[in-house]
Design goal:
five-stranded mixed β-sheet, alpha+beta, 2 helices, single chain, 92 residues
Amino acid sequence: MPYLERWKFDDDPKEFDLVEVTLTFSDGSERWSLVTTPQKLVNYSKKEMEIPGFNIKHLIIANTMDHDDIEKILKYLEANDELTGASKALEC
């Protein structure tokens, strides 16, 4: 089974409330997720939206946007077979 080799922020965590990350696996496949913090999620939900809520299955909520914290969460999800459900296939 492929394992997570590396990941990267695709957006600047200081500039966006929902930050895209790309996950690269040992077999060359890639997936992506959105990462945010509770406070950034509140900021996002206060923005004008067409509907009063949203559902994002591939959203990971972290305590901080610190690289090491995100790394720990991704490793935890992978170890518990939850990383695939917390991400979407990246189609080239």
